[in-house]
Amino acid sequence: MSISINAAFDSGNIRVVGIEGDIATLEIVTDRHSDFYQWFHFRVAGAHGRALTYRIVNAGGSAYPPGWPGYKVRMSTDRETWRLAPTRYADGALEFGSDGSSELVWFAYFAPYTMNRHDALIARMAREPGVTHRELGQTLDGRAIDCLTLGDGPKPVWLYARQHPGETMAEYWAEGALERLTDTANPVMAALREKATFHIVPNMNPDGSFRGHLRTNAAGVNLNREWHAPTLEKSPEVLCVRNAMDATGVAFAMDVHGDESIPANFIAGFEGIPNWTDAQGEAFYDFQRRLTAHTPDFQMEQGYGKSAPGKANLTMSTNQLANRFGAVAMTLEMPFKDHDANADAEFGWSPERCKRLAGSCLEVLADMIDGI
Known about the structure:
It is built from 8 helices and 17 strands. By secondary structure, it is α+β, with helices and mostly antiparallel strands. A 7-stranded mixed beta sheet has the order 11-12-14-13-15-17-16, sandwiched between helices. Strands 1-4-10-6-7 form a 5-stranded antiparallel beta sheet, with no helix packed on it. Strands 2-3-5-9-8 form a 5-stranded mixed beta sheet, with no helix packed on it. Its cofactor is Zn(2+).
């Protein structure tokens, strides 16, 4: 029986170059109107009883080639549990395999978070007591930008994820944050909701998510370079969210992402903004120190460099919000690889761990909210 490889579904991405014997030669498709590519997600049918090898031959030309060494592909037979597959990167090609134990097998860059799952999350959370749903606007493809609001406190907190659609770990984090905040039996979260009002956008880029993009929306635009001057023509997603932020103000903000290369969780800040204050910066550094002490799944040794004074890129959301509102704003980065200091040989950095980290972030925020 011949094998069939298919990516014509929600968040799918792969091109079949050829299948010869038990070896499938594949390519990742670039984001529409863009040169970015690295996200892949595809299904293999007819795999039972055959040890198959898959070679993504254009991996070396992807957006972040340093992300491949040490990385392992995610593999699933039920689309719920995603395990690490033995993976090799050499000569610009990413190579991995399946052992023939299942008729159907799925592979992805990270555990997918489909638009179907997103819609189910929004429907579930909108029914929770005290939660209000708003459609802030629509994407270029006409999809909704969903926002869930809860809490009664005076401090406006914005949590938003997945500006870069291939960074699916970000929406698992948002799901974990929503589940923790709506847990009415948790006294810490109850106290936090009394002090803050949360506005949560679990997916900033639904078009890119559905299309199987790594980094851009339907127009090929990187949303996290649009926060200085978003437009309806190029970046309506950012425009509607930033307008909503202008209406509420922002005291604390977290922009949730994934990083291809660094095998750790870390936070990037807003050093270099023109309106920097030492008190604002100290609250940001204090959050990192507390989170490091709170969970072994966070660290401060690895991360990005800091901008020089006055040199921050205000097209990026964290810098824009910190400068615009005086907010304690930050970008959380989670790995496509694993959190090496606290590694998991079977699952790597996983959806479940993303959700737990969200809970840790909220618990730290609860300890700090009075001073923000």
